[in-house]
Amino acid sequence: MLSILDELNDAQREVVLYNDGPSMVVAGAGSGKTRVLTYKITYLLSRGYEPHRILALTFTNKAAREMKDRIAALTNERTVRQLWAGTFHSIFYRILREEAEYVDYNPDFTIYDAADSRNLIRSILREMQLDEKTYRPGLVQSRISNAKNALVTAEAYGRNREQVEYDARAHVPLIREIYARYQNRCRQAEAMDFDELLLQTNILFRDHAEVLDRYQRHFRFVLVDEYQDTNLAQYAIVNRLCEKHRHICVVGDDAQSIYSFRGANID
């Protein structure tokens, strides 16, 4: 382990060794932020943390693969397979499949990609006899995605006066109805889009304290790469998981776009 730490500069080494509470690393691209997470996970393993109790979240499959490959080179493949390391969507998909009964879904629910989502929206627009030049599928898809990432359900969307007035000014007052139909159709098909994975995980943890407690106790340390890219839904899930032990390390490259992180040790 000393040889591994010797490969880090003083600032990086300090982050790897600090495990008494939340920490945040803000630095520019190419400064070794992801490397810090890789070495920190390796260090945690050397300190007796069981791999299946470490959660590492990334934004892309490529980043997840690179992280796993680096950790495997420092440890072994068997250890890496036991880590909960992957993209936000892949990890929350795994959790929702395990806990599907709590959100009234079949454990084998389908995932709709962007094309599936847009095709469903087009079908709903035809059903409602709406002009695609006004209600452009991409625009509608973006509105629904933004709502979910802000933790706004279809039911809440229709009750949000500010949102309804905004849509009216944008000449798309029926977005709320499209959103409601979209959600109903997804439910009927036992399907979730990528944004729904985030929304449903939040609902799961919000409404079922015993489930949240189980995952809080399970994950002893949480690490997040490219934290500046988190939306409200992702931030809320991470915050819930860590609200008791506060063992979390996040890295990002833009302090201005990172959500407030109380009690963080900023290096």
TrEMBL record:
Signal peptide: none annotated. InterPro entries: DExx_box_DNA_helicase_dom_sf, DNA_helicase_UvrD/REP, P-loop_NTPase, UvrD-like_ATP-bd. The keyword Ubl conjugation does not apply. SUPFAM superfamilies: P-loop containing nucleoside triphosphate hydrolases. GO terms for molecular function: 3'-5' DNA helicase activity; ATP binding; DNA binding; hydrolase activity. One of its GO terms (cellular component) is cytosol. Residues 6-267 form the UvrD-like helicase ATP-binding domain. It comes from the Bacteria. It holds the Pfam family UvrD-helicase. PANTHER family: ATP-DEPENDENT DNA HELICASE SRS2, UVRD / RECB / PCRA DNA HELICASE FAMILY MEMBER. This is DNA 3'-5' helicase II.
